[in-house]
Structures are given as structure tokens and as C-alpha cells.
Amino acid sequence: QVQLVESGGGLVQAGGSLRLSCAASGWSFSSYAMGWFRQAPGKGRELVATIDSSGNTNYADSVKGRFTISRDNAKNTVYLQMNSLKPEDTAVYYCTANMAYWGKGTLVTVSS
Predict the structure, then answer these.
(1) Contacts of 49 (CB under 8 A, 6+ apart)
(2) 15-to-53, 59, 66, 75 alpha-carbon distances in Å
(3) CB 110 within 8 Å of CB 10
(4) Which of 9, 13, 49, 66 has the smallest set of CB atoms within 10 Å of its CB?
(5) Dihedral of the CA atoms 91, 63, 20, 54 (nearest 10)?
(6) What percentage of residues in the chain have a pLDDT greater than 70?
(7) Mean pLDDT, residues 75-85
(8) Which of 94, 108, 105 is closest to 35 using CA atoms?
């Protein structure tokens, strides 16, 4: 049974940092592309960052230079380091495996 569990969300002031984690279980983690999406209140779900099985990364323009996605295959975990946070980064952040499996999300709130 595939499971993705996000953690690390919370309340932070603008300019601050958070690191999200997504612990995966139930399948061969290292062979899957992983990603982070987010959904702000009243908006649709949008791509934040992805990382494939070779470690190649892709970012939304809005987070380039501020967010870093990484993975630790030994720990079956993918991370999202978020720096220089802005109020517009406020959203529920979801972890996905191949966009086929999804976690339940973790809330990030950035105050101005």
C-alpha cells in the first residue's frame, strides 16, 4: 500500500524558512519521480517542484532561487527547503509520487 506523509508545515514570518518532508512507503521509492504541489485558498493546485529518479529537478518560476527539492532514497523521503518565504506562498503543500499517488498535505502559512 503506497503511503505519502508530509510534515514540516507551520506558521512563519515573511522572509523566513521552512523545510517540508514527505516520507514514502509501500513501493520502490527510488524509481519514482517525486514532486511538490500546492493549493492556495480559492485557487487550483499548482506545481511547485519535481525531482526525477536521476535527481534532475524542475521548479515553478515563482519559486526558482528560493525553494530546493531533494530526495534521500535511503530514507524514502523527499524534501522541500523553502527560503525567503512570501505571503503568497501560503498554501497546503502536497507531496506526489509520479502524480499518481498523493499525500494529505501540510499547511504553510506565511505572515506579512
Answers:
(1) 35, 36, 57, 58, 59, 60, 63, 67, 68, 69, 80
(2) 31, 19, 10, 29
(3) no
(4) 13
(5) 130
(6) 100
(7) 97
(8) 94
